[in-house]
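re: ur question from earlier - yeah i can do the single chain one, its not a big deal. heres the input i used so u can compare w yours
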Amino acid sequence: NKIVRWTPTTTNTPSPSEWKLERVDTISDDALKAQVSRALGSAVPQTGRYYHVVSLEYGRAMVSNYVTGNINTTTEDNNQYLQAWELVETYGGFYTLRNAVTGQYIGNSPQNSSYYKTSDTKPGNGFKLEENYADPYTLAYELKERYSLGKGIHCAATQGYDAVCWTAGSAANRWMFREITVNDSLLNAQKAAYQRLKNLKANRTVYQ
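and the output i got, formated as C-alpha cells:
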C-alpha cells in the first residue's frame, strides 16, 4: 500500500482519506532523540576526536580559509580535512575548535556581524557549547562567546554563509558535530601542502 494524494472525504462515511492519531507511550524522549541523531549523524562532541561542524539550518560544513583566515562553510567532503575540526578545551568548561590541517584555532569575535578567524594562538576565552533546546529531538549546539553568552557563531546567509558573530538563539547559530574518520596519509599530504604555501608566503620577499 502506498500513500498518495487524493480528494478529501466529504461525508460521514469512513474513507482511506481519514487518519487517526494515536498516542505512543512506548518510546522515551531520549530514545527518540538518539534515533534522530543517528539518522542525522550528529554526535555529542568530545575532545581528541575530529568532526565536521555542520550548520543545522543550512547543512553546510565549516571550512578553514587559510588565505583570508575566515571560516567559510561549504558542502561536506570527507576527503577535505580543512573541514575537520578538533574540540579543544580553553578554560574550565569552555572550548574552541582546532583545524586538522592548519593546526589553527578559532578565536573569539564578540561583535555582531564580525567574521570569525583562525590563528596559531589558542584563545584564552573560547566558547560554551550549549545544547539546542528549541528542538528537543535534534542533537545540535550553539557555540556561545565566553564573555558574551548572548552571542555566538552564526552561519550568515547574508555574508556568503561565512561564520560570523550573531545574537544567540537564531536557527543559524545551531551546529551539528558529525564525527569523521581521518585517513592519516591523506591528512599528512594536506598538511604538507599547507606548510609549503605557508613557507612561500613567509619567504615572499625573497622571490620578489
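Residues 131 and 191 are 32 Å apart (CA to CA). not sure if urs matches, ping me
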